[in-house]
Amino acid sequence: MKNIFLFILLMSSPLLFAQNGVISGKILDNDQAVPFITIALEGTELIATTDENGKFLLSNIPFGKYVLKTQSAEHEPVEKQVDLNQPALDLGVLKVIKIAQIDEITILAKSKVQEVKEQPFAVESIDMKPVQNLNLNVNQVLNQSTGVRIRESGGLGSDFVFSLSGFTGNQVRFFVDGLPTDVMGRSFSINAIPVNNVERIEIYKGVVPINLGSDVLGGAVNIVTNNGIKNFLDVSYGFGSFNTHQVSLVGRYTTKKGFIVSASAFYNYSDNDFKVDINLFNKQTGKIDDQTTSVPRFNDAFKSATGMLEFGVVNKKWADRFLFGLIANTTYKEVQQGANMTIVAGEVHRTEKSLIPTLKYEKNNLFIRNLSLKVSALYSTIEQMTVDTSSRIYDWSGNHTIKSLSNTSGELNWYKTLYRFNDQAGLAVATLNYKLGKYHQFTLNNTYSRVRRVGSDPLKVDPLPFEDPNILEKNFTGIAYQLKLFRDRWTTSVFGKMFNMNSVLYKSDDNTGEVRRADNQFQLPGYGIASSFFVLSYLQLKASYENTYRLPEGHEVFGDGLLQLPNPDLQPEKSQNFNAGFLFGKRFKKHLVNVDFNYMYRLPENLIRSVAIGITSRYENLSQAKVNCFEGAISYSYNDQFKVEFNATYQNILNASLKPNGEPDELYLDRLPNAPYLFGNGSFTYNSKQFGKHKQRVGFNWTTSYIEEFYLKWPSLGSLNSKFIIPRQVVSNVSLSFTSHAGRYNVSVSCMNLFDAMCYDNFRIQKPGRSFNVKLRYYLQKQ
Where are any strands of DSSP class E within 389-486? Predict the structure, then answer.
């Protein structure tokens, strides 16, 4: 980070005396002021928004000739040539016309969702507006996307494994507004985020642009929230089966002088007492029953409360955005079983508290035209405690006995534990972007993170590794050059990356039990290229290649003190990623057809994956693998009311490990176990036009997910009759929504797993059956 800011300082010194000015004006519609119209200067990233009196001000603009454009969903765009050659230029009055007054208009401007999809990378962009009224979380929306499979260990708030186009877990990184979430703690999980304040979700597959600065191996998910400046209030309450309650409150207020404050609060609770089918122990026969019995889960409740506050200024000469923030969270999660359902717990639970101050700064045209800077930083303090102190032995019926022997052991641990760890983590991200003319763009990104963990346990028996601080420090630097030619039909981006990691860890010696220090240091280079070409205006070809690394995460190395064992010897993952595909989208009057296809070939080394060890698990390296992934999606919509969509994914992940002598090992070319290889989704959506004097709308949505059966363990091991198979699964969800007063009042009713299908995930852990949910939402935006 010091190098970044030194570079900025040196770069800015000869430019401080450049001539800059301001452009002002007023927007009217039939002599009426028009607030909240966006004003932009073509060829720059400068934007402004009109105030309640229709006035706007663009500041810190280098002298020169520009094209000023207005952007509004309700008014026809206006363009005006301007020549800024003085400190202050007043354009006077600009008049606009409402779209409703035009007999017929064809909107040719591309949405932000479409712009993201047309990047040269393999990327999918999901518009969240159609689902904001439904009682869903981000995970449920993502699980309907091409190439995505999210495998949860239970109901609301449960741990999950994210799979994207052949890669799983932390090989795929999560971001919120471009900021990595891996140092924010387990409580800041995407499966607890409501959809109300999410504008879109960007899913990068394989090659990832460097502006998402991180050691990404197999892809990235960027959740883009509502970052506008309009005043609004969004309140929702959802309730449903298993005593589930989800409350969301989001609001923003911006003054005429540019002071802005945003606040949000989320609360989630569920008993998660859905029924599971268990082979119970029969006390009369002394054997396990052959037939399963349906019993409710009884130690699986989840409760989470999050508050977020952000305030600062916008649209100032020295900053487009300068914001301070604070995130606070508390989470309580009961633990029903370990990595499988053979041993049940009745009193084990985890708690977590976190406090995260944040800082954000953005400035376009920094010192010179087309140079932009974006800086984000946070510091998190996280306290997590695992409680396993009971001397009881529970069964799935909820009955228990008292341990007569080994009463020093917990329900899931060899010894009772009140394990507590404290994490202190810092993150700083800086991105410089410079556009040179119409065709060239340069980007520089640096991301630094540091995690320090100290643990304690008053009930410990053996030495505790975390009594001494464990430290994991990482730095990522990326530089990219983008070239656009042939009127933006051809776009190519080349980039280089550098990954650095330093760690100080303590582990118990397997022979003596003595805690010893282990220092690791890595410095690894990466590089890649991505290119796309529009053969026709509606047909785009894409291809990309990347040689990249992923450094182990803190929780993979440290463990969680309960069911996930530590492994300080984890090595960085490496992968070569090849992507190729095409994007087709064409409108035929009221008909719209979209087709998206991607092929991905990957050669990962030292693949980090979770391996079950009894009721626990641990992250280990698999020396080599091969991944072939085919995925495609096709959608058809009529008159922007009816939409039918299908997608499918086939991913063949094979073990390519060799013995030290170079010969294939015993599992060579075996498909990786406990990972779906064939799955897909289908959906049908209907949204009516507005009707009635209160501008009502009715919506209907049906989705179906399909997963082919797959093996829990290595396919070549054991006889066919003895193999554990996770069976084929077909799950359908349906929802009905009603909106009134142009979106102010909303209600939706949904049924998840409509046909009560048997669903499994992870190490064949059963998921919830049929459930019903209702969501009430009130949305008010100042026009």
Answer: 392-394, 400-402, 417-436, 440-456, 470-485
**Radius of gyration of the chain measured on its C-alpha atoms:** 27
Q: How far is CA 126 from CA 17, 111, 112, 114, 141, in A?
A: 43, 11, 10, 9, 9
Question: For residues 424, 558, 500 and 448, what is the CA-based torsion angle, rounded to 10 degrees?
Answer: -20
3-state secondary structure of 430: strand
Whole-structure pTM over 0.90, yes or no? no
Q: Rounded to whole angstroms, how far apart are CA atoms 542 and 584?
A: 11
Q: First vs last Cα of the chain: how many Å apart?
A: 41
> Which residues have CB under 8 Å from 568's CB, separation 6+?
503, 505, 506, 507, 518, 520, 557
Q: How far apart are CA 82 and CA 93, in angstroms?
A: 14
What does each C-alpha distance from 523 to 473, 476, 550 come to in angstroms? 12, 10, 11
Q: Which residues contact 703 (CB under 8 A, 6 or more apart)?
A: 144, 681, 682, 683, 732, 733, 734
Burial of 434 (C-beta count, 10 Å sphere; 0-12/13-18/19+): middle
Burial group, residue 1, by CB count within 10 angstroms (0-12, 13-18, 19+) = middle
Report yes or no: 758 and 766 within 8 Å, Cβ to Cβ.
yes
The string of pLDDT tens digits covering residues 608-638 is 877 777 667 788 887 788 889 999 999 999 9
**Apex 479 CA angle, 473 and 482, nearest 5:** 150
- Which residues are CB-neighbours of 144 under 8 A, at least 6 positions away? 681, 683, 703, 705
Backbone angles phi, psi at 117, to 5 degrees: -65, -30
Among the listed ranges 444-458, 504-518, 588-602, which one has the minimum average pLDDT value?
A: 504-518
